[in-house]
Amino acid sequence: MQIKLNKVSPSIQGVPLFEPVSLEINPGEFWAVLGPNGIGKSTLLNSLILLHQEFQGDILIDQHPIGQMEPRYLARCIGLMQQEYQYIFPQTVIEAVSSCRYPYQSWQKMESIRESHQHANDSLMQCGIQQMAERSIQTLSGGEKRLLHLAMLMTQSPALLLLDEPTNHLDLHHQQHMMKLLQKLLKTGQHAIFMVTHDYNLAIRHCDKVLLIFPNKQWICGHPQEIMDNSVMQQLYQTPLQRIQHQEHVFFVPS
What we know:
- By secondary structure, the chain is α/β, with parallel strands linked by helices.
- The chain has one domain (about 5-90, about 155-255): P-loop containing nucleotide triphosphate hydrolases (Rossmann fold), CATH 3.40.50.300.
- It is about 35% helix and about 25% strand.
- The protein has helices at about 40-50, 70-75, 95-100, 115-125, 140-155, 170-185, 200-205, 225, 230-235, and strands at about 5-10, 15, 20-25, 30-35, 55-60, 65, 80, 160-165, 190-195, 210-215, 220, 240-245, 250-255.
- A six-stranded mixed β-sheet has the order 7-8-9-4-10-11, with helices on both faces. Strands 1, 2, 3, 5 and 6 form a five-stranded antiparallel β-sheet that branches.
- The termini are far apart.
């Protein structure tokens, strides 16, 4: 499944946040979106799933406009991990994760509660939080909630996973565990990832492609090790950074 952005530019109160973006997201690709605070990275993710509908341009899934798609089908194509969630109803972890199978329910094929719980339990085990299945979601820490949100998205199993700062609140061990889970998911060839992050070292280590949105509203995209140099990163963050090569790894530190 291919997702194509054709001159997409989100706006707020009629003001475009950045220059129109055109790119293609293909199965197996791991994208990172980098840029300063307030430039519109999260708004771009919300536009891709129609939570933010003030944008110019076309968003296509296999050449079909997403605005013409039935919501249940769109949820099989694209899923979003937001920065923050508002929990309206009291739920246990297993109930919250199981509910993400809703896109696969229909009058033609109704998944049983047992089947939905099996998908949910598999995701909880992969995320290492199966011991929290019966806990109330209101009792979770910030890091535990991020792992819950990943399990929810894995249970939904969309073709494109939109991740808004997914490693927030996670310690180093759980950050690395999350990246390994995402890489494993990509190896199936059935998914792609489009991730907003401020962790440029994580992006350059794990991602195939990056979209960089600059303070002047211009943007570039490409392979991270090819376009992320000292000059570009300084323009992006308006602060001096030094690129360091250690064996096969590249990383940046403030200079």
